[in-house]
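Hi V.,

You were right to ask for the full record rather than a summary. Here it is.
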Amino acid sequence: MGRMSRRAFALAALSTLATAPVAAPAGGPAVPAPGAVPGVRRGGTAELRGVWVATVLNRDWPSRPGLSASAQRGELLAHLDRAVRDRLNTVVLQVRPTADALWPSPYEPWSEYLTGTQGRHPGWDPLGTAVAEAHARGLELHAWCNPYRIALHTDPGRLAASHPARAHPDWVVPYGGRLYYNPGLPEVRAFVQRAMLDAVARYPVDALHFDDYFYPYPVAGQTFDDDEAYDRHGGAFATRAAWRRDNIDRLVRETAAGIRRVRPGTRFGISPFGVWRNASTDARGSDTRAGVETYDDLYADTRKWVRDHWIDYIVPQLYWHIGHPTADYARLVAWWAGVARGTGTALYIGEALYRAGAAGEDPAWRDPAELSRHLALAARYPQVGGHVFFGAREVAEDRIGAMARVVADHYRQPATPPR
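Predicted structure:
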């Protein structure tokens, strides 16, 4: 038998996910000296400069569903070219927005945000093209997946006939006007890992990336109905909350192990909501008064993932201005730098470019220099190895010149993505 290709090896490894035991990450890279950032040469040219490209609801790309393959490709390449123009080096492309795919997945249907009809072939391979064209421009391509969101409505009949949620209605929980896979079911966790890791197996993506959606954000007056799953699987836990957090911990640990098995060297990053817990809730928390805390409301122990080095990088979404009375950007950068110090987990900061010049925002966001001040402040902390901007539409529009100001003040020279 001839030598197995790297892609064939990756796909073969992926096929074992359903049965192979998944161990928690062991060891990982050596822990750097306190204050050091893995892969970042302070004062040098290694720094992550990223942009999120959201496909859900055609937020950033494609501009609308149903464009021709050539038009979709042209728009995608324009986003990549803008990233190069602004001396960014990383594109975080949403490739699994609603339990669907922007590549020919054997597990899930084609995304409706391409053609307007879920399951319809768009006539090209968006993820494959994105990886090749990003790398040709010297950009990293991080494949952004949402693990559990199925649909932005509650009608399973609107899903493609082949959709796994229709084949397994017992996996599905309607909540807040949307459909979600139930994180409390081991079979769901195994399935979503196979679906997401298929992208890693097929393409040389530089990272697999999760956003902030684990258990859904709370909706007043509604209950996420996982009673049956809790009765079956939660007996070892003192509370439902502890069981839910363990479900998400398992997803993170197992995904990390799966990436190492399928394509060693690919990174794993997560961009959570920016507040783990308020200090009033937990003395280890941040000096904030946020209405949502990821630990308690999304059942995502983001601090643990960093401290225990389960993930390669974290990008907390610090979408507030400096001096915000409830969640001050300056205080949160300091808190996250303290969390990341000495862990081996790289810290990048998620930046709210979308707020700059937007109607109805705080007056601070009318100042084109607000984001530039963010980068200047974050540079005081050696743990901060870069920034990611939301989103690509605003990079293109740059309503008040906030991105241009960032580029002029901080990105005068190109930088290499940290590894």
